């Protein structure tokens, strides 16, 4: 499937099919350039959605102007975007910005010094220009300006997971864009994960506002929300455990934690493929703390605790 301008805008508008969403998610993980291109489109989309149009739009005339500009500036490799769907004016606005070479938007955002904070096999922490500290989990990518010059401090978590400890500044809210979700805070600490089409936000201190399309939810300390593709509803719920913090403190704290949940986190932390061979083992409660232990040591404690066995094959570990 060709990843063209029209498909990217449909993706950002939430109009892409499940198959198209999967194609784009795979494409964006291929390299950093693809991630940056998607982030450019995201800012275009957010900016164009704030543009006010009065009266009716002559779509035919707008398209003629758009095509003329595209021909005149073909060296920029701009593409004509078809006008369709529930938001025709928005796509026209986004396309016009693209054909104009991103204009003031590009020069004001992307020509400004931007930092690509990417991790692979290590967890890395960095301090932003406002004093906020970001801890980035492995296999993650965060884009942010070298300095915050506008009325809001805006960054983009393109993929992966990060913990934000945001410096308070009521005059300039801190905004994280990830997927089709926006997270807005003033000064607080929280965890954001964007993996496999799911976005999870967990709050440790303060209050966090999460918005997606026309839906908004406020999260307080000890609450989380999971945002799913093609599902607009968002519901705050209690955070069941602190296992999400393993990559920051190197600890796995289990407090009546069901075995299935521990296995889920271990697979993520160690890039392993552990499966539970008998479903009656799924809800066995685990009460212990693993402090920077190896995977083999953790699994041995689990087996000894529940009197179960472990079998290793070439690509997975079976608990039974």
Helix content: 25-40%
CATH topology of the largest domain: Jelly Rolls
Q: Helices and strands, in N-to-C order?
A: HHHHHHEEEEEEEEEEEEEHEHEEHEE
Class from helix and strand fractions:
alpha+beta
Q: Domains counted in the coordinates: how many? A: 3
Intertermini distance: 42 Å
Shape by Cα distribution: globular
Mean pLDDT: 81
Write a brief structural summary:
With 320 residues, the chain is α+β, with helices and mostly antiparallel strands. The protein folds into three domains: 105 residues, no CATH class; 125 residues, Jelly Rolls (Sandwich); 77 residues, 3-Layer(bab) Sandwich (Phage tail protein beta-alpha-beta fold), CATH 3.55.50.30. 30% of the residues lie in helices and 31% in strands.
List keywords for this structure.
globular; 3 domains; 320 residues; alpha+beta; 9 helices; Phage tail protein beta-alpha-beta fold; Jelly Rolls
Describe the protein's architecture and organization.
The chain is α+β, with helices and mostly antiparallel strands and 320 residues long. It is built from 9 helices and 18 strands. The protein has helices spanning 5-12, 18-28, 32-48, 59-72, 88-99, 103-109, 246-249, 259-270, 295-306; strands at 114-118, 124-127, 133-136, 141-145, 153-165, 174-178, 181-185, 189-195, 198-205, 208-212, 215-219, 223-228, 237-238, 251-258, 274-276, 285-291, 310-312, 317-319. The strands form 3 sheets. Strands 1, 2, 3, 4, 5, 6, 7, 8, 9, 10, 11, 12 and 13 form a 13-stranded mixed sheet that branches. The protein has a 3-stranded mixed sheet with strand order 15-18-17. A hairpin with a 2-residue loop joins strand 8 (189-195) and strand 9 (198-205). The longest helix has 17 residues, at 32-48. Residues 50-63, 73-87 and 101-111 have low confidence and may be disordered.
């Amino acid at each position: 499937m060709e990843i063209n301008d029209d498909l990217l805008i449909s993706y950002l508008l939430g109009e892409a099919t499940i198959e198209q969403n999967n194609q784009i998610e795979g494409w964006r993980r291929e390299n950093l350039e693809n991630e940056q291109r998607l982030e450019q489109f995201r800012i275009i989309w957010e900016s164009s959605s704030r543009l006010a149009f009065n009266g009716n739009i002559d779509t035919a005339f707008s398209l003629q102007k758009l095509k003329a500009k595209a021909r005149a500036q073909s060296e920029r490799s701009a593409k004509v975007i078809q006008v369709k769907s529930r938001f025709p004016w928005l796509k026209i606005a986004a396309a016009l910005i693209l054909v104009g070479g991103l204009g003031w938007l590009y020069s004001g955002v992307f020509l400004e010094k931007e930092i690509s904070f990417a991790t692979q096999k290590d967890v890395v922490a960095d301090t932003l220009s406002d004093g906020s500290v970001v801890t980035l989990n492995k296999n993650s990518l965060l884009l942010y300006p070298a300095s915050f010059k506008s009325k809001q401090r805006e960054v983009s978590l393109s993929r992966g997971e990060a913990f934000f400890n945001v410096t308070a500044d009521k005059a300039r809210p801190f905004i994280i864009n990830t997927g089709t979700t926006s997270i807005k805070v003033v000064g607080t600490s929280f965890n954001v994960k964007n993996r496999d089409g799911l976005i999870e936000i967990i709050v440790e201190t303060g209050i966090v506002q999460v918005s997606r399309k026309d839906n908004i939810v406020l999260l307080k300390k000890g609450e989380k929300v999971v945002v799913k593709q093609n599902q607009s509803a968002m519901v705050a719920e209690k955070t069941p455990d602190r296992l999400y913090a393993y990559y920051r403190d190197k600890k796995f704290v289990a407090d009546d934690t069901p075995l299935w949940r521990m296995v889920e986190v271990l697979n993520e932390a160690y890039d392993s493929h552990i499966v539970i061979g008998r479903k009656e083992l799924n809800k066995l409660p685990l009460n212990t703390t693993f402090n920077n232990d190896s995977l083999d040591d953790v699994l041995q404690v689990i087996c000894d605790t529940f009197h179960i066995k472990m079998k290793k094959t070439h690509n997975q570990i079976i608990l039974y």
